[in-house]
Amino acid sequence: MAVSLWKKIFQTTKERILQQRRVSLYNVAHGYEEELIKKKLQQFAGGSINLSKEDNGIGILTLNNPQLMNAFTGTMMLELQEKVAELENWKDGKGLIICGAGNTFCSGSDLNAVKAISNCQDGMNMCMFMQNTLTRLMRLPLISVALIQGKAIGGGAELTTACDFRLMTPGSEIRFVHKHMGLVPGWGGAARLVRIVGSGAALRLLSGALKVDPERALRLGLSEETLLSSEESASLEEARAWLSQYTEGPASVIRAVKQVVTAGRELPLEDALRTEKDVFGTVWGGPANLQALVRRPKHK
Ligand SMILES: CC[C@@H](C(=O)O)C(=O)SCCNC(=O)CCNC(=O)[C@H](O)C(C)(C)COP(=O)(O)OP(=O)(O)OC[C@H]1O[C@@H](n2cnc3c(N)ncnc32)[C@H](O)[C@@H]1OP(=O)(O)O
Question: Which parts form a coiled-coil structure per UniProt (predicted)?
Answer without folding.
Answer: none
